Amino acid sequence: xxxxxxxxxxxxGKGKSENKSLNKTGNNxxxxxxxxxxxxxxxxxxxxxxxxxxxxxxxxEIQKLLGGFSKLYPIIGMEEPFYYRNKVHAVFxxxxxxxxxxxxxxxxxxxxxxxxxxxxxxxxxxxxxxxIRKLIKNFKLKVYNEDTGYGLFRHVLIRTGHxxxxxxxxxxxxSPILPAKNxxxxxxxxxxxxxxxxxxxxxDRRTSMVLGEREIVLYGMGYxxxxxxxxxxxxxxxxxxxxxxxxTEKLYRTAVDYAGLTGKEVVLDAYxxxxxxxxxxxxxxxxxxxxxxxxxxxxxxxxxxxxNGIKNIRFYNKDASDFIVEMAALKAKCDVIFMxxxxxxxxxxFLDCVALLAPQKVVYVSCxxxxxxxxxxxxxxKGYKVEKIQPVEMFCFTRHVExxxxxxxxxx
Length: 412
Description:
Mean pLDDT: 89
Shape: globular
Number of strands: 19
Largest sheet: 8 strands, mixed
Helix content: 25-40%
Number of helices: 11
Strand content: 25-35%
Structural class: alpha/beta
Distance between the termini: 46 Å
Strand order of the largest sheet: 3-18-19-17-16-13-14-15
Low-confidence stretches: 1-30
C-alpha cells in the first residue's frame, strides 16, 4: 500500500503560494494549497477553498435540491482529501514548440493542459505518466494529432489498487503495433517496478472515446485486483470501479445498511457494474441478482463472485429495464432493489419497471443530486416514499457528490 506523505512533505519544494486557511475534518487539519493548473484545467471547482467550506457548500446545495423529500443527514467527508483518485487518465499532445505534453483537456475544449502532478490523483500514476512521456520521446514515437488523425500515442489510463498496491497501465494507441514494444515495456518496468500489468488498447477511430475495443496484454494479467468491504475484485481497463476507494466503503456500507437485510430477501442489483454493491450485500441476503449492460463488467463480476466464494449471486448481461419487465412478467419475487445509475440518472422506462416489480425497498445510489431529485419526484408518484438521504463526499475539490437514498413502498 502506498505510504501517505505528510502535508509538510507535499508542500516542501513546490515553490507555489498557498492558502493558509485550515480545515478540520475528523482529528486532522488540512492546508488548502493553490493548484498551479486550476485556471486552465477547470476540473476542480473548489481549488483554493478550505475543505470544510467545500463540504458546507455541498451540503447547502443538496439541501436545496433534496431537502423537500426527506431528512437529509450531514455529508460524510474525508480526513485527507488529496491524491484519492485510483483511476487516472492523460491525453498526449505537443505544445507550440513541438514538445510532448500530457494532461487533461481544458474545460469545454480539446486543448490539452500539460499536467505534471495533480492534487487529487494517485501520485504513483502521475509519476508513471511522466516516465511514459519521456519514453515516447526517447523511442522517437509519434503522439496522436486529433486534427490530422496521424500519430500513435493517444492516451494513457492508469488504475491503482488502494489496498493491493497493484498498478495497471493502459497504453491507448491508434495502432496495435508498438515499435520496439519489448524494449519499451522493459524500460517502463525498470523505471517503475511497482507496475503489475500493462495493456495496449487499440483506438483507431476518429472519436472522443478514450478506449477502443481491442486489447493486447503486454505484461501481467491484464487487470488488477483490489479489496473493498472485505471482498477482492478484479478490475480490468473498461470496468467501472469507484475512483475514491476510502469513501466507497462508506458509501456501500451505508447502502447495505439502508436496505435492512435479514437474510430472507431477494435483492436486485441494477446497473451492477463489476458487482460491488450486490456482493457487499450478499452475505446478508437470501439471493442477489445483478444486471449490467456492459459485457466486460459482467465478465469481471462473475469472476469476482467466484474469487470471493459467493454462491448466492447471479449476473446477467442485459438492459436493466428489459430485465425488470421480464421479472415482473414472470411474477418473480424481489424485495429490495439497489440502483446505481450513471450521472444522467435513471430513465422513466426503468422507474416504471421498478414500480411494476414493486419491491418493498429501493436503495438509490446517485452521483448527481439534480438527476436524483428528478427521479425521486417520479418515484414518489409511483407509490414510494423517501425515508432518508445520506450524502457522501466522493469527489473532493469538485461540485460532485454522491447520495444514498432509501425509498419504501407507501402501502407497507
